[in-house]
Amino acid sequence: MRIEVRQGLPPGQRRLAAELYWQAFGGKLDRVMGPEPRALAFLERVMRADHVLAAVDAEGRLLGLAGFKTPAGGFAGGTCADMRAVYGVWGGTWRVLMLRALQGDVDNERFLPRRDLRRARPAQPGDRQRPSRGDLRRGGPARLSGGAARCDRHQLARPRPL
Fold first, then answer.
1. Rounded to 5 degrees, what angle do the CA atoms 4, 8, 9 make?
2. What digits encode the pLDDT tens for the residues 109-123?
């Protein structure tokens, strides 16, 4: 079996893409986005075909997908109007409020850099190596020269040997 990865959804397969998305995230989103038929209708309505990589077979059938987010938007975003169109005024309103409470914004500066990091200069001996208390209090990452985010023991938990 030959599998190819393409950007975008194959024509006519939005419903299957919504079902695959729900299969992956429905357990987590069911209480807010359920019942399943409405959740699928909402997903089918709001999916952005330009924010997905799709695995397809030789006949072009969708086998799997990976949605992603950029500064321009995400795979399964949608608006309040989309939510209300599928769930009604009251159902759409409380779902929007719940989803906003559950969802955190992506730190675009850290995860979606707009500058070319290859131009960042390497750390110099005088550069700060550990985050300051202010960095930790503000929740921001310590920075190396050039703006690349640092990962050290203050930001990531390292597995301990058994």
1. 85
2. 555 555 554 455 555
